[in-house]
Amino acid sequence: MKVFIVGLGSIGKKHVIAIKSIQPDAEIFALRSAKNANYQDGVINIHSLDEIESIAIDFAIIATPTSEHKKIIAELIPFRFPLFIEKPIYSSLDIEDLVVSANKKEVITYVACNLRFLNCIKFIKDELPLFPNKILNEVNVYCGSYLPDWRPNDDFRKTYSAIAELGGGVHIDLIHELDYLYWLFGTPKEVKRNFKSQSSLSISSFDYANYLLDYDNFCASVILNYYRRDLKRSLELVFDDETWNIDLIKNQVTCNNQTIFSSEQRIAETYRIQMEYFINCLKKKTNTFNTISDAYNVLKICLDQ
Description:
Blueprint: E1 2-6, H1 10-22, E2 27-31, E3 43-46, E4 59-62, H2 69-76, E5 83-86, H3 96-104, E6 109-112, H4 119-127, E7 136-146, H5 170-173, H6 176-185, E8 190-196, E9 208-214, E10 219-225, E11 227-239, E12 243-247, E13 252-255, E14 258-262, H7 270-284, H8 292-303
Parallel strand pairs: 1-2, 1-4, 2-3, 4-5, 5-6, 7-10
Antiparallel strand pairs: 7-11, 8-9, 9-10, 11-12, 12-13, 13-14
Helix pairs in contact: 1-7
């Protein structure tokens, strides 16, 4: 297997580790901007897209800052090899032409939203259809974490998450929550949004986001922030007769103080499972369950005014 990766930061390295754990002999080629870029174990540095024309690339990974995605996707679509794109696909909706182009050229695409592989979310996806008469009245989603803890060895104010011009901001950085709602319930009829940047973090990107998603028979509230010290990531399903509480950190589902589902799996493990899924799709020559078109639909929920 030969893999081409653009963007060898923290998330790019996670994808490299996932590939190597699945296929240790995989050849990985990374596009590096600096001639003296540091070498990573098991990664071959290249410095121009021209160099991959003679290599039989099986798929490419795009893991650059969000603001650079459009340019890289445009450059890679003509090669027609499958694209594994780190979420989100872009920092604005000005990418629809590339979505159309990728589909027209029948490029296999996957946009990496690894929470779809978290067992408690998969449990909800599998269980909801089994109760067709269960009445869902309300959905509440919350994700609060402390941005300086994300990359403790770096100045958080200099990371792309904190810089609006690089495509940062909690609304788009934590698009995972909107993605799994889209996966579970589809496209809402209407979306109301409220973005703020006024916390003690003092960053230029939005550090607070609030969404209200209107579905046919219920509303979903989503709250995201960068400044909560005690990590919380949860989903709450309020039915007419009971409430399911899903803790994504503990990977469990409770109802009436009783555990109805629990898994020892942690979010970090989903990167390997996600990559395995994508590689299996390539082997079967089938598209994925989160194509560039799906990701664009989620981006519209996130950003559309």
